[in-house]
Amino acid sequence: MWPAQESRPAPRKSTVSRVALGLVRSTYGNGHHELHTSIPETEVEQQIRGAEDSQAGPSDVDEQQEEEEEALTFRPDRIGFIGAGQMGEALICGFIRAGICSPGQLCASVRSEERRQRMLSLGLQVFGDATLGGSAELAAASDIIFLGVKPQYLDGVLEALAPHITPRHLVVSIAAGVRLASLEGRLPEGTRVIRVMPNTPCLIGQAASAYVLGNHATNEDAAKIYMLLSSAGLAVSVEERMMDAVTGLSGSGPAYVFLAIEAMADGAVAAGLPRDKALALAAQTVSGAARMVLEGSGDGSLTHPALLKDRVTSPAGTTIVGLAELEASGLRGALIRAVQAAAKRSETLG
Ligand SMILES: NC(=O)C1=CN([C@@H]2O[C@H](COP(=O)(O)OP(=O)(O)OC[C@H]3O[C@@H](n4cnc5c(N)ncnc54)[C@H](OP(=O)(O)O)[C@@H]3O)[C@@H](O)[C@H]2O)C=CC1
Ligand SMILES: O=C(O)[C@@H]1CCC=N1
User: Fold this and answer.
1) What's the ipTM?
2) Where would a tag sit more exposed on the chain, N or C end, judged by fewer CB atoms within 10 A?
3) Ligand 1 test: best mutation among 89, 111, 124, most atoms within 8 Å of CB?
4) pLDDT tens column, 83-92
């Protein structure tokens, strides 16, 4: 086993998690995610998990009663997205799919007609360009505001948004490279801010996200962001100095893996396999291998990939010949340099 182990079941749709969040009392989604990690939980994460674990197995009647009580005392948070492009849409769809919120709780400020139509089709309330009045309307309709524009558009968006931020709001930035201090400095004094680095597999509930709290964010805010992000994949809290590394790894990482899948399929096509079968087998191979690292041990712990690699590799077999080619081509070095280069680029974006 590697290293010291712990399993963290993803949050289920318990009353406690919803009360902690003030988020939702819906019957949306599936809540079936299984996540395993050896990354230590924060106090807030432990509290959420402990509360959920202790709630295991209430009767349907109890649950219904609790939901009704909750409905009387908690108003669900409304979540607004300024910019709903690739990553914004992935978050929106991930949250809806997980059942952590309903489309009626979500709204978006968009620029293009294409984005407007897409958000309407998902059931969201839609506002216009954030720099042309959209941010005022979005702020009025939201409790949590996700900043989902490219880093270069943040200046204009924050300038337009700042006058409409009230103590009610929690601002969540997903912009690569943009530091908390920079965000906080452009918002009213005391604004609760969280910086998040998600990735696009959020779309299908398979995100790898990291987050860090700003100076004024509370434990309740931490619980909210953890519940939201972990509903759609793995969520870990990190120190801000680690966010560029996260961006180079899991933020950009899906693109590296897509490239690898495409190239593996190309190799199989060259060796005689039809394209569609090659692509399906390549993608499933990557997905299956990743799941073995995450859950192959069967007890929720991470398994070291070197151990798993050795199990595939027969003496004088096919795999060792393939591995030797990859080593000769510098695959490991290339991946290390890719993550480092992307992290370095992230450092320059703020
Ligand atoms: N893509 C990814 O995998 C990841 C991205 N991120 C971060 O997410 C953020 C968004 O990236 P991504 O989704 O890829 O980019 P996109 O360009 O796909 O999405 C950004 C969206 O913001 C919209 N927008 C820009 N200005 C405004 C405005 N004034 N008012 C309303 N909407 C506006 C754009 O509108 P229009 O469509 O009209 O251009 C666009 O739809 C970035 O900061 C990036 O660093 C973080 C993790 C992963
Ligand atoms: O390429 C980018 O800048 C964004 C941030 C991480 C992934 N995509």
Assistant:
1) 0.99
2) N
3) 111
4) 999 999 999 9
